[in-house]
Amino acid sequence: MSFALEATGVSKAYGTVKALDGLTLEIPRGGIFGILGPNGAGKSTLFRIVLGLVRPTLGETRLLGAPAGDIGALRRIGAVIETPRFLPWLTARDTLKMLALESGERSPDIDGWLARVGLTEAADRKVNGYSVGMKQRLALAAALLTKPEVLILDEPTSGMDPAGILEMRALMRELADRDGVTIILASHQLDEVQRVCDAVAILDRGKLVAGGRVDALTGINERLRLLATPVAKVLEILGAKGAADGEHAVFAAITRAEAPALIKALTLADVEITEARWFGGDLEKVFLSHTGETHAG
Amino acid sequence: MLADAFAAERLRFFKARGTLFWSLCFVPIISVMLGLLQGFTLRMVNVKASSQGTRDLDLIRTPVAFLEQAVDAVSGSNFFIMQLFFLIAGSAILAGDYRWETWRFLTPRNTRTNLLLAKLATFGVATVIGLALLAVGGMLAGLVSAGLTGGPVTWAKPEGYTLTQFAGIFAIAWLEMMALGALAAVIAVATRAGLAALLVPVGVWIFQGFFVSLVSKGFESQLRPPLQYMAGLPVLDADLLKAALTPAAELGTAGPVNWPVALVALIGWIVVLTALAVWLFKRQDLTRE
């Protein structure tokens, strides 16, 4: 299996503070991979190490199979880390032109990328007057300019309005599904991660505490609530997996894969189902169960 | 790769209009205005003297030689002020990415060595333009002054500088600025502060100039004790090289100048300081730019 990013026993200390503590992590190529963690978990430090901005105290990272800092591999990725900052006297178009030159990109599709992130009208305005959301969009365009194979995004929707967030999610999905870009996304917005990511890793205090496919992680505590009559029949079919919720509802502790079979069984048993809705199973619970100590503190 | 970084650095520098004005255009404009003021003042004196019947007006009608004006502009006693203004460009180029926290966009796109060398190369281009503007400003100031006083204008004095000598002095002024820029690069990387990159190198240069002037008396004892012990000082090296190009009539009583040592020392400073800046930058953690 080829990996977009590999970290092996990576530690980084700033004085006495350990930002990363022996982190070992493998992110496969393809799809959208989320990195979650409370503040200080080490997400941004990991990204800075991968991008060659800081050097690890211990351990090794590899990007697209090449050792950290390899400029050939770095040019195959795009990144937006932390709040984007730009040279205030340049316009968006000049900023992209400058960054394309820096990368040795001879024919960048600057207008195309500006259009794709919704900055066509503001392309010739100085970046100084941009909102945080507009800077995020420009940073994304800058990251995509060289048609990267891997895109690293650190809080890409912070400062964006709801419409912008929806556009960003759609764009991420499109890049991953249509263009085959591997996206590594760090975000505090667990709802966003759950919506767009295929797999996640949860970091806490510089260590990997959980990881896997989103549906597998969230499926652990997911339940189906059925509004159905007669309730007794439903409970009989579910057996130990069923629990009554008032007079007309039942909670079924089943996985999503088991749901079609259950519905079919209930229908055959002449149970009238008026509503079926999934409860629980959100990433927040998984996140808090692994990082609860941090949050409690 | 270095060419890519150089092209990107030039683009961003030449779009920074404020920096361009203060670092490259301000002093030449001021010098033209001073020429205008000087000419106007002399003209007033001239008019007053004429009305009083004074006959020594030729003293006021100073002849202007363009090459002398240009040489004076790029190597005159006030050149250290120009160095300060040039370093506005230097600090903006060399420390700008720390100030604006933009290294994170650049370091994944090119090697750190190329990024820093491109900055110094851009500073070199800016300095060439700045020196050219200074020379043109000096000539214009002389022309304006001569126009107002009615003094004669010539290309060069009979025993004065030649065009080749001017070119040499221009190159030496540029080399001295590059040594200053390389020091600014070291300071910028070490402190991550634009103000330090601006003020520390100028302070070091002023201190050197003061020290050299304390020990030497003109150029009578070139590289003989005690000056030979200070041959490594870039300010002295630049002065020695300029003296080597100065026409005999202008140099006065000074003896021959040991210019090869001075040239090697000046270039050596540029190479060593640049290498130090690159070495520091390659090992620097850009946790926060």
Characterise this structure.
The complex is a heterodimer of chains A (297) and B (289). Chain A is of the alpha/beta class. Chain A has eleven helices and 14 strands. Chain A has a six-stranded mixed sheet, sandwiched between helices. With 289 residues, chain B is an all-alpha fold. Chain B has eleven helices and two strands; from the N terminus they run ααβααααβααααα. A two-stranded parallel ribbon of chain B has the order 1-2. Chain B is globular and about 75 Å long. The mean pLDDT of chain B is 85.
Low-confidence residue ranges of chain B: none
> Nearest-angstrom radius of gyration of chain A?
23 Å
| Rg over alpha carbons of chain B | 21 Å
Record field, number of beta strands of chain B: 2
Shape of chain B: globular
Number of helices of chain A: 11
Cα end-to-end separation of chain A: 39 Å
Strand order of the largest sheet of chain A: 6-7-8-3-9-10
Task: Quote the average pLDDT of chain B.
Answer: 85
Helix and strand succession of chain A? EEEHEEHEHHHEHEHEEHEHEEHEH
What's the main sheet of chain A like?
Answer: 6 strands, mixed
The structural class of chain A is alpha/beta
Strand order of the largest sheet of chain B: 1-2
Structure characteristics:
heterodimer, A: 297 residues, alpha/beta, six-stranded mixed β-sheet, 11 helices, globular, B: 289 residues, mainly alpha, two-stranded parallel sheet
What is the gist of this entry?
The complex is a heterodimer of chains A (297) and B (289). Chain A is of the alpha/beta class.
What's the SSE blueprint?
The complex is a heterodimer of chains A (297) and B (289).
Chain A: E1 3-14, E2 17-28, E3 32-36, H1 43-50, E4 58-63, E5 66-67, H2 71-74, E6 77-80, H3 92-103, H4 110-116, H5 132-144, E7 150-154, H6 162-177, E8 182-186, H7 190-196, E9 199-204, E10 207-213, H8 214-219, E11 222-229, H9 231-238, E12 242-245, E13 249-252, H10 259-268, E14 272-280, H11 283-296
Parallel strand pairs in A: 3-8, 3-9, 6-7, 7-8
Antiparallel strand pairs in A: 1-2, 1-4, 4-5, 9-10, 11-13, 11-14, 12-13
Chain B: H1 2-14, H2 17-52, E1 64-65, H3 66-75, H4 79-99, H5 103-106, H6 112-149, E2 153-154, H7 163-191, H8 194-215, H9 234-245, H10 248-251, H11 259-282
Helix pairs in contact in B: 1-6, 2-4, 2-6, 3-6, 3-7, 4-6, 4-7, 4-8, 6-7, 6-11, 7-8, 7-9, 7-11, 9-11
